[in-house]
Amino acid sequence: MNLKDGNISLDKLELATSEIIIGEINLTEPNVTFETDSTTTAETTVNTDSLTFSIPVVPWKIAVDEFSIKNGMFAYKTSDKTQNEALEKWLPVQGLNASFENTLITPNSYKLKLEKISFALSNTLSIESGDLHFFSDSLQNMGIEVHLSALLKETKGLFAKKQTLDFSTKAEGNTSALKISEFGISSTTGLKFNLDGTIENPLNMPYSACDLQFASGAVSREMILPILSNFSPQTELPNFKPFTISGSIKNELYNPLFDEINSESGKNCSNWKFRYRKNKRKTGCFIYRNYVG
């Protein structure tokens, strides 16, 4: 790890009450590289169907008025050449600039305000701007609001093309139910997708139930191909036909039911079921559907 310049303004350190109060943290050009040995050893693991999440408990009260990172870089390397080549598409994270304000962590609550962020993932994608607000309290209430603007670069063809992709989401609730009031994706090519609804028991995936509604604008090959090519450069979609979709997702997250999916590409689909199955031999996903119209 290298750091060109940095400073911490410590206002209070109280061991008796487990408090740390910091006025300001500034990091200039932090350069962090993680290196690992990819040599694997045999180990015994026990697989379960339970997938749960929990917010970690910090025994201290930590408050930071301002925390900024300027022109940071993050890289990850292994001793496996093939794995490094795969990582080169997304790493290093470079040009990292971030600004946090009024961050508060206590044993019973979190408050995080990321007011500004920008960075680039190698030469593939760059986050031009963004912000994130997150909170949780002792009553298990929580909320999150995110806005990101990303720039995608398509390297196919004689001339490179750029596409801006905007993402926003807003959700709040508690460990019993989470209400998604906004989840949207849009791009400069005209691509639009929106989703809202509720997820019950969100921190315990095997028992999470959902009631979600979604809709898209018209989706064409020119809209979707630049996005897919960032993950799979060989994607062509030669017979792709424009479509729009809308509908709802109900039932359990592990076994969702896609109800009334409407498409303008020629057929309407009703009652799509996506089933997740896991046993000792294999893990699989299965889709069942009926066509109408």
Pick out its properties.
15 strands; mainly beta; 293 residues; 15-stranded mixed sheet; disordered C terminus; 6% helix; single chain
What does this structure look like?
The chain is mainly beta. It has a domain at 1-36 and 53-138. It is 6% helix and 60% strand. The protein contains two helices and 15 strands. It has helices at 81-87, 221-231, and strands at 2-14, 19-36, 61-78, 93-105, 110-121, 125-136, 141-154, 161-174, 177-187, 192-200, 209-216, 246-252, 255-259, 268-278, 283-292. The protein has a 15-stranded mixed β-sheet. A hairpin with a 4-residue loop joins strand 1 and strand 2 (19-36). The radius of gyration is 23 Å and the shape is globular.
User: How confident overall, as mean pLDDT?
Assistant: 78
Rounded radius of gyration (Å): 23 Å
Low-pLDDT residue intervals, each spanning 5 or more residues: 270-293
Oligomer: single chain
Percent strand equals over 45%
Helix content: under 10%
How many strands, which pairing sense, and closed or not: the largest β-sheet? 15 strands, mixed
Tally of extended strands? Answer: 15
Number of helical segments with 4 or more residues = 2
Distance between the termini: 61 Å
Q: How are the strands of the largest sheet arranged?
A: 1-2-3-4-5-6-7-8-9-10-11-12-13-14-15
What structural category do the secondary elements indicate?
mainly beta
